[in-house]
Amino acid sequence: MIKFGTGGWRAIIGDEFTKANVCTLSQAISDEMKENGSDKIVIGFDRRFLSDISAAWAAEVFAANDIKVLFIKKAAPTPLVMFGVKTLGTKYGMAVTASHNPAEYNGIKVFTEGGRDAAAERTALFEERIAKGVEVKSMPFDKGLQSGIIEYLDISNEYIDSIISMVDMEAIKKAHLKVLLDPMFGVSRTSLQTILMTARCDVDIINDRHDTLFGGKLPSPSAATLQRLRQLVTEEGYDLGIATDGDADRIGIIDDKGNFIHPNQIMALIYYYFLKYKGWKGDIVRNIATSHLLDKIAESFGQKCYEVPVGFKHISSKMEETDALIGGESSGGLTIRGHIKGKDGIFASTLLVELISKTGKKLSELLDEIYSIYGKCEMCETDFKFSAEKKEELKKLLFEEKKIPEYEYEIDRVSYMDGLKIYFKNGGWIIARFSGTEPLIRIFCEMEDMETAKKCCDKMREFLGL
């Protein structure tokens, strides 16, 4: 029952996320590596329940298969693990994390050459091996350390220095910004605090203790989960509030006025900043559920916006294919050309700090500038749970019968690239797709105003019987 979704393999602890399954998956990867001449892997883990222990279980399997394990001893951001794969030139890496999922979940993300998310074709090979049956080998962790087949790895300084080298630290130093960080009980504190304090920012931190229940909230930065950050930013006069999800590959931002800056807006801000203020050139890649405002910005500067399915592996692949400048998604993950080939919330946060410092403008001011040129785009986002029977019913309705609701807006085209997406001739769109990480169907709609977007989502929900 090990199935990879858009963000690796994730399962409920004690149900499908078990020692047996962690070791089985590790053996399948080991077999694939040995068959293709790969003999080294980077392994890291976050602060979730069982993450450190599960990473050790995996290491024991790789070691028993004579595969060198570079084991990151302390809980680390997922982008740091990806950075390790890239810089050390290993063909594989692994992070034990369930990212932003609820606390009862854990999982494993697998990375390949260059520090990218393993492609669906690669993870399908692991699933095929598991289905056929694998013979799990293992050796004690301490024995692996003694023999040298397992080696502790610390590349945090190199990772931090890499980010520092890609931003204008002098501009940030001159801005004297006051920043409030919310790691959401995750793993971003050390890296992000070090970067910002090196740039002479005044940094405070909340929600930093090790809490495997994430304070009773979903470790996903959203308007709903960042109420305390929003309150403190306005009460204490911070220039910026930054939150990262459980494994620090996604971000949530609160501006100086206490407004939640949606990831769609973050993408627009950074891309516009690159093109307008830094004078850079380059295309952009977004997933199918991310704002079309990016398309307008790209077109106005003579660049192109590429659309891909959900899953950052699709974004990184398209970026490499097109040499795009930036790629990202509406869930809060992004990267740029020259950095790791995966999303990095720590790097994205640093870019936003540079943006404010270099332009001398607040995020709200820059958003107003963007909207005055391109118009507003408002997105309604809804999630719905379903039974196994309902899922089959929905699949038949959407993908076999290919029925759609009757909208009052003229339809330009319909896509089944990833779920059902309807493009309207007025520039708006709506999508209904099954989550690749949780048992949910997601309905997103983007229109010129929120009221219209909500009405369109409601019509889709009623049509699907949710």
Please describe what this structure looks like.
By secondary structure, this protein is of the alpha/beta class. 40% of the residues lie in helices and 22% in strands. It has 16 helices and 21 strands. The chain has helices spanning 19-35, 51-64, 78-88, 120-132, 141-147, 156-165, 169-175, 189-198, 227-236, 263-277, 293-300, 312-322, 345-359, 363-374, 388-400, 450-464, and strands spanning 9-12, 40-45, 68-72, 92-96, 105-112, 116-117, 150-153, 178-182, 202-205, 240-244, 251-255, 260-261, 284-287, 305-308, 326-328, 334-336, 378-385, 411-415, 420-424, 429-434, 440-447. Strands 1, 2, 3, 4, 5, 6 and 7 form a seven-stranded mixed β-sheet that branches. The protein has a five-stranded mixed β-sheet with strand order 9-8-10-11-12, with helices on both faces. Strands 17-21-20-19-18 form a five-stranded antiparallel β-sheet, covered by helices on one side. α1 (19-35) packs across α4, α10 (263-277) runs parallel beside α11 (293-300) and α10 packs across α13 (345-359). It is globular and about 65 Å long. The model has no long low-confidence stretch (mean pLDDT 95).
